[in-house]
Write a structure and sequence with these properties.
single chain, mainly alpha, 2 helices, two-stranded antiparallel ribbon, 132 residues
C-alpha cells in the first residue's frame, strides 16, 4: 500500500514516517494556529498588565486631585472666613472711630464751656479786685 491509499482511508505518514490520523498539513496549520494563539494570549496578558498599571496611575491621580480639591475648598472657606472677620473688624473699628469722634466733640464742647467759665470767673475776679 502506498501513501495515497492510506490517505484515502484517513491515515497519514508524517516526516518521521509515523502513522497519523490527521493530515500533516492540517497538523502543521493547527500547530501554527496554536502558536499564534499562545502569542495572542501572551500579548493580551501583557496588555492587561499595562491597563492595570494605567488604572492604578489614574486611581492615584484621582486621589491626589481629590486631596487637592478638598484642600482648595478648605482654603477658599478659610479665605471667606478671614474676609468676613476683616469686614467685621473694620465695622468695629468704624464704630470705635465714631464713638471717639463723638467723645472728642463732647470734650471739645466741655472744654469750650470751661474756657468760657474760666474767662467769666477771671473777669469777675478782675472786677472784684478793681472794686476793692
Amino acid at each position: 500500500m502506498n501513501a495515497e491509499t492510506f490517505g484515502k482511508n484517513g491515515l497519514y505518514f508524517d516526516e518521521l514516517n509515523k502513522i497519523r490520523i490527521l493530515d500533516p498539513a492540517v497538523a502543521q496549520e493547527t500547530n501554527e494556529l496554536k502558536e499564534e494563539c499562545k502569542e495572542f494570549v501572551d500579548k493580551i496578558a501583557e496588555f492587561q498588565k499595562i491597563v492595570d498599571g494605567f488604572i492604578q496611575i489614574v486611581d492615584n491621580l484621582e486621589k491626589e486631585v481629590e486631596k487637592a480639591k478638598v484642600k482648595a475648598l478648605g482654603s477658599r472657606n478659610q479665605l471667606k472666613s478671614v474676609t468676613k472677620q476683616r469686614e467685621s473688624q473694620q465695622q468695629q473699628l468704624q464704630v470705635l472711630i465714631l464713638e471717639k469722634k463723638i467723645q472728642l466733640e463732647r470734650l471739645r464742647i466741655q472744654y469750650e464751656s470751661l474756657k468760657k467759665e474760666e474767662a467769666d470767673q477771671n473777669e469777675l475776679i478782675e472786677q472784684f479786685l478793681l472794686q476793692n
